[in-house]
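Give me structure tokens for this 224-residue protein.
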Amino acid sequence: MRVLIVEDEKKTASFVRKALQAEGFAADVCHNGDEALAAATSTPFDALVLDIMLPGRDGLSVLRQLRAHRNTTPVLLLSARGEVNERVEGLDAGADDYLPKPFELVELVARVRALTRRVGENKSTLLRVADLTLDTVGHRAHRAGREIELTAREYRLLEYLMRSAGRLCGRMMILEKVWDYDFDPGTNLVDVYIRRLREKVDAGFDAKLVHTVRGVGYVLREAP
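Here you go.
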């Protein structure tokens, strides 16, 4: 499960990130609303921890924009102000839960866990792009009925690409989501694994699904 933490207080964001990581979550951090909106619309997250008071675009504006674009990622709102009217406004804007500051980290983690559990219950366990399918419970991939043997890392890469189907995935983003690297190791690691995946997914098929956007990254989609 991957969570986006949107909090301008860097110390608070660090504490929340460490607490979620200790519970097995992958956690990304943004410190302003514009970065948060860009991240949440370009990357599939399982939940957002979203502070209302942010530099630039505030949290409620981010939330409204996401819901206007039919982004249904569960959102836990945070705010130093705990007035009833603000809570109601946040819930009316599409928030799934609300936690006033100051809060206990154990409670925040419990609330995020509850949100992601609901996502897990509702999330499709069978991903499909054209004639390529991925069973996320059995960890089995098939194309046109033919099973594709994948290593654990190849599986993780394919799942990320399929959950992001149709959207450009940059090399740095793939390193973060698939390898949990927040830095560029200076190798062609991503390119090597994409090549292996392409050999397994596209070999022998006229319609290619794994596409390179030169100099930028990769996208999994049916050919335009």
